Amino acid sequence: MSDHQAFTLENLKALTNQLNDYSYAYHVKDEPLVPDAEYDRCYRELQKIEVKHPEWIQPDSPTQRVGEKPDNGFSSVLHTVPMLSLDNAFDNDSMVDFDERIQKLSGKASITYCCEPKLDGLAISLRYEDGHLVRGLTRGDGLTGEDITSNIKTIYSVPLKLRTETPPPVLEVRGEIYMPKAGFEKLNQIAAEKGEKAFVNPRNAAAGSLRQLDPKVTAARPLVLCAYSIGYAEGWSQPDSHYDGLLQLSEWGFKVNDLMSRVEGVQGCLDYFAQLSEQRDGLSYDIDGIVYKVDSIAQQKQLGFVARAPRWAIARKFPAQEEVTQILGVDFQVGRTGAITPVARLQPTFVGGVTVSNATLHNQDEMDRLGVKVNDWVVIRRAGDVIPQVVQVIEERRPDDAQEIQFPTQCPVCESDIERVEGEAVQRCTGGLVCGAQLKERLKHFVSRKAMDIDGLGDKLIEQLVEAKLVATPVDIYLLKDKPARLLAMERMGDKSVEKLLDAIEASKQTLFNRFVYSLGIREVGEATARTVTQYFGTLEKLMTATEEDLIEVEDVGPIVAQHIRMFFDQEDNVATVQGLLEQGITWQSEDADEVGEQPLEGKTYVVTGTLTRYSRDQVKDMLIKLGAKVSGSVSGKTDCLVAGEKAGSKLTKAQSLEVPVMDEEALHEMLITLGAV
Ligand SMILES: NC(=O)c1ccc[n+]([C@@H]2O[C@H](COP(=O)([O-])OP(=O)(O)OC[C@H]3O[C@@H](n4cnc5c(N)ncnc54)[C@H](O)[C@@H]3O)[C@@H](O)[C@H]2O)c1
Ligand SMILES: [Zn+2]
């Protein structure tokens, strides 16, 4: 905005009112109107005007106060010590400014900071008298909070009694109540199945769950408390270090964040930021930044507070995972199994660290639930490498030219009818392999790295081969060797590349049973399921003749997967394709018990993570499986060993915290040699 336009009293008042409306919806109704990024932008704009014209600052300006006065069914209670907010930093420079300010004010040349992940939930204060929990309050407007004791008591990680014989007579502990990602996803899935409104994000879900009038509802929600400070104590003098205070809380039975760390000076803070930015996506809970606190309590006291926040702490924010943008149109994509997915074309927006121009709308039910139209302004969310999603329509901003979205009745690629099976949310093209889109997707899957792994047969070439009618089934790929001239005629194909491609096709004939089954593209049979069923049945014949009952016996195979596998092998076309492939000479080592070698790793569960140099991750998985191990995708208490390559991230951290043995690449290599696998 240009200065003379924006720096007016009217603009300041408008921004103040706008922010207060947002804040009320966010803090009291638990139904944010806009994403945090939008709120923060308006907030910073207001701050800019207020700095220039302090005489205009409104008494109800969000820069002068914390949160909102609660207005629902809970009773209000005055906090012993006000619960304030935190100042924000959005870049390294602001961190350097912060550190310089602290050095100046405290007269110290180097400051020790405690760094903690900024959990994205909501703040509460717990009061213990003689070691017993007597009250739990929300932050509210900072001065008074809502008494939510009965709800708090339903959360397992809230100690009802401190684990000590000699508790302080009075202790007030502050912490964040949050909902881990997995719990959030499950909750939303259940809501979707019941046709109920889903929560936009885990923070929202936590806030909505905690402020339920019926504690039974709260009890059913997966909430966790993590303590992050001592708010007040009587008859006990707390340690002079904030960090040591947290360790004390941990001993008394509180969960404290295991990634917190004490560092020296601003460089320590910046390093911590870089490290946590890497780990963010792999954490099991949402964090929206890092909180840096001056570690010495004496220094904290000396520094004191400004209007709404302590001077001795700052929250460094991560790039936003939610943003506002406009839907320009909707495309309908056809997948490998014919599923039609509506994909919103968006005004490109920077979110979750990348520019996003498409977001999935999943299916008709999801579009109905969102009530979304073309030209709507929406909130999109991209967390980690998850596909960007539209999570909310901003109805207040619906333009006059908003248009209903029509789900097609005919496949956009082959014009076959689209059908919706009873009880399923997806709609599918009925064209089967007549449908060029399905055929192309199916072939791309067949040759992909984790399937038959045919190098040089990229998406573009497959599209050309299908369009030239050279390839119509996976078997045709193995017949290409008889048609080198036709291959040469394809775009960007020379003698060399044709030769390389044919070699790669030839080499792919030596494969693994699990890869082969995965490559068939049976619905619901991913890489992991392909591994378990092939390990269980041992031979193709046994798998192809297994009944649904037989299939359900396999670990991790439910009735739906069993049905899809059975249905697949009941189709004559599919059986013919499988036979055709075997006739082309596709083979794998027999997994029959009496033919395989020793299985020294039988019963052991391995997880592989990080970058390996000597082998690919897939090679390692295959070798471990041959040795009898089970290879899983995530670390848990059941994991026997984590193979960690370079740059291993959250899986390594998790393994360490669960005391799961960790093996580096060298140790793995030695083991594989010893066991005769290489
Ligand atoms: N989307 C909206 O409409 C809307 C409206 C109002 C506020 N907001 C968002 O709320 C935030 C501002 O609100 P705020 O005043 O709660 O400030 P804040 O969330 O930026 O910081 C203070 C809070 O951080 C939390 N926290 C997490 N980990 C902590 C730790 N280790 N130590 C101390 N505190 C920790 C506590 O809950 C504390 O109350 C901004 O992110 C803003 O975008 C959004
Ligand atoms: Zn089609």
From TrEMBL:
Residues 596-678 form the BRCT domain. Zn(2+) binds at C411, C414, C435. NAD(+) binds at D36, A37, E38, Y39, D40, S85, L86, E116, R139, E176, K293, K317. GO terms for biological process: DNA repair; DNA replication. The active site is at K118 (n6-amp-lysine intermediate). Keywords: DNA damage, DNA repair, DNA replication, Ligase, Magnesium, Manganese, Metal-binding, NAD, Zinc. It comes from the Bacteria. Its cofactor is Mg(2+); Mn(2+). The keyword Transcription does not apply. One of its GO terms (molecular function) is metal ion binding. GO terms for cellular component: cytosol. The keyword Magnesium applies. It catalyses: NAD(+) + (deoxyribonucleotide)n-3'-hydroxyl + 5'-phospho-(deoxyribonucleotide)m = (deoxyribonucleotide)n+m + AMP + beta-nicotinamide D-nucleotide. InterPro entries: BRCT_dom, BRCT_dom_sf, DisA/LigA_HHH, DNA_ligase, DNA_ligase_AS, DNAligase_adenylation, DNAligase_N, Hlx-hairpin-Hlx_DNA-bd_motif. Pfam families: BRCT, DNA_ligase_aden, DNA_ligase_ZBD, HHH_2, HHH_5, OB_DNA_ligase. It is an enzyme of class 6 (ligase). Gene3D superfamilies: 5' to 3' exonuclease, C-terminal subdomain (1.10.150.20), 6.20.10.30, BRCT domain (3.40.50.10190), DNA ligase/mRNA capping enzyme (3.30.470.30), Helix hairpin bin (1.10.287.610), Nucleic acid-binding proteins (2.40.50.140). Its EC number is 6.5.1.2. Belongs to the NAD-dependent DNA ligase family. LigA subfamily. DNA ligase that catalyzes the formation of phosphodiester linkages between 5'-phosphoryl and 3'-hydroxyl groups in double-stranded DNA using NAD as a coenzyme and as the energy source for the reaction. It is essential for DNA replication and repair of damaged DNA. This is DNA ligase. It comes from Marinomonas gallaica. The lineage of its organism: Bacteria, Pseudomonadati, Pseudomonadota, Gammaproteobacteria, Oceanospirillales. The gene is ligA_1.
